[in-house]
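lol ok so funny story. i was supposed to be doing the assay writeup but got distracted and ended up predicting the structure for this chain instead. priorities right. anyway since i did it might as well share w the group, maybe its usefull for someone
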Amino acid sequence: MKEQIKSHEAKMQKTLDVLSKELAAVRAGRANPAVLDKITVEYYGAPTPLNQVAAISTPDPRTLAVQPWDGSVLKAIEKAIQVSDLGINPQNDGKQIRLNFPPLTEERRKELIKGVSKTGEEAKVALRNIRRDALDKFKAAQKKSEITEDELHDGEDKMQKLTDKYVKEIDAMVAKKSKELAEV
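and the output, tada:
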């Protein structure tokens, strides 16, 4: 029973890790290399993550510089950024690509905050699904007389406490990102 609870807690932690990465990729007025994490470039016929074909730096708070290690991939990087949903037009100077992040408009800021809240809700749903799976396994084990009714209730309580703990963490992460977006 303890192993099952531990494995379900690990799944919940993984959900938090995924949420953390997704929130880091949300553009908040400042240049953050994490916004390019989901972009892949066609490199020698294979889709390759942008950070594996180029160095990404932040020369100033509102600019990202993308310096490819192989100059032949510069056009492919430019195209990949243009077709992404970043909403930023890359500037190619022949050696590197510069991305200038304009200040967020009030409308765009509200849109991003709404998206962050939606992502947080999706993470909570994932947590609840993990809890439900755990409870189903506990009930099945109790039906087969592998665990007692007291152990079943104990397991249910522990899963609920874990779920509550992780939901609080998700709420805190979403609130922090929303505040960050509202202040930019």
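DSSP finds four helices and six strands in the chain. The longest strand covers residues 54-60.
back to the writeup now i swear
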